[in-house]
Design brief:
Distance between the termini: 24 Å
Bound molecules: iron/sulfur cluster
Structural class: alpha/beta
Number of helices: 10
CATH architecture of the largest domain: Alpha-Beta Barrel
Largest sheet: 7 strands, parallel
Number of strands: 11
Radius of gyration: 19 Å
CATH superfamily of the largest domain: Aldolase class I
Number of domains: 2
Oligomer: single chain
Length: 298
Amino acid sequence: MGVDITPFKTCTLDCVYCQLGRTTNKTIKRESYVASNDVLDELRDVLSRGKRIDYITFSGSGEPTLNSNIGEIIEGIKSITDVHVAVITNGTLLYERAVRDAICHADLIIPSLDAVSQEVFERVNRPHVSLRVNRMIEGLKCLSHEFTGEIWLEMMFVKGYNDGPSEVSRIKTIVSKINHQRIQLNTVVRPPAERLATALSPEELDGIKTMLGGKCNIIEEFRKKEQEIYDTDTRTAILNLTRRRSVTVSDISNSLGIHRNEVIKYLRDLREKKIVRIVMHCGQDYYKLADEPHKEEL
Ligand code: SF4
């Protein structure tokens, strides 16, 4: 179950491949964006329905460690449930002791590491002007020695940006100094923020996997098992998905646990009303919220 505690596109980075579009609030300032009690009340409500939840995962519309309450929220979750907690982070703020302390009670941390040289970092991740990749790497190393849970490094490869052999070889050297249990390799499978950000072929990704060796897995396109729907209103649930990122009919069907024919009916209606639009990527239709949907329809 995803928990989103940062406003839409509030992030320390503006990755060329971001499936949420361009970053509208690029910042490194941590703020109390959502009150801990509000998040915990909502979680209590969901948990009280007795549905099976594998992980409570911090991710969503921006960088979750930018929320200065994340530590308090994780501790609160631990006091109300045994469900494991995961934090998906871009890792840029891990050089701050306070950030590492805040997420140390999670069970699993999935930090990104797309580049290790400043030039490539700037090209692929377009960081906040004050961020240096060396500091980020130092933060990751510290975290990996302090944290007692699992760390899975996530790497997104973009053709012509960070997939060159010299950068991959440098990544391999750095990774050998970070304690981790897994490396997840990914490429641009969803419509990115920038059209020029394109995917590697399966063979190219396999080549990187071989170069990196060790604990690498290539992430298959996200396919959720049947998952319970928490929104009572299917239309609102679909809108919420298209608001966060571009999604296929199968994504919606798998995420909400409803038949794809049912999804198609809702999407047809939403398209006719110009609330969602189709974006083509790699020959596949993705649905996303229209740039200026009619407010009264939402
Ligand atoms: S991919 Fe993640 S880290 Fe990169 S801009 Fe989007 S939200 Fe931020």
